[in-house]
Amino acid sequence: MKTSGLLTGLIASASLLIAASANAAVVVTTGGVAAGDGSNLVSAFAPTTYTMNPGSVPTFTGDAVLFTTGTNPNQNAQPFNDSTAYASVGTLVSPATSTLTLAGAPINYIGLYWGSIDAYNSITITDSGGFTTVINSANFAVLDPSNGDQGLAGSAYVNIFDTFNITSVVFASTQKAFEFDNLTTAVPEASTWAMMILGFLGVGFLGYRKSSRSSTQAFRMA
Question: Which residue range forms the structural domain that includes residue 150?
Answer without folding.
Answer: 25-212
